[in-house]
Amino acid sequence: MIWWYIGNIILFIAIGIAEGFLWHNNVNKLTKKQARKLHIPLVAIRCIWFGIVAYFADIPTMLGLVFCYPFWHLGVLYQTRHLLNKKIYKKGFFDVASTSSTSVIDNLFPIYFDVRLLLLVFGTFIFFDWNWYEIFGSTY
User: Where are the alpha helices (DSSP H) in 57-112?
Assistant: First the structure.
């Protein structure tokens, strides 16, 4: 089970880097409507992935990973965008979504770093609390 956690964190980081390059290369080429259409399949892919995790692992494991996702994905996305363009996301990993974000959630209520950190702690707790016996082989 520990490999579910580590593997998914690596996946979240990779997706953040990929989306950072994707949005950097398309930010001035797409209208907001076109960008939103591009964002929908990316969200669908994430949902499918978490469904696969829920099927092969279990729902609490999937929920723990879902709560960890924003910390890694958004942090790496903002850091990548900042490295590609020093004028945006000046706080890098610790920044919050810009007003040009195509994410409906980011536009309704931006997820600040401290909230992302809290979600990471909560998700990690859920994951390890639920999978403690499988990982460490004993009860606590």
Answer: 59-84, 104-108
- Nearest residue to 105 via CA among 30, 42, 13, 58: 42
The pTM is what? 0.83
* Per-residue pLDDT tens digits for 23-57: 888 877 877 778 778 888 888 998 999 999 888 88
Q: Delimit the domains of the chain by residue range.
A: 2-136
Q: What is the dihedral sign for C-alpha 109, 119, 78, 103?
A: negative
Please calculate the CA angle 21-23-24 and round it to the nearest 5 degrees.
60
Across 14-37, b (16+ Cβ under 10 Å) vs e yields: ebbbebbebbbeeeeeeeeeebee
Roughly how many angstroms between the first and final C-alpha of the chain, as a whole number? 17
- Give the integer Cα–Cα distance in Å for 101 and 98: 6
10, 24, 81, 4 alpha-carbon torsion, rounded to 10°: -10
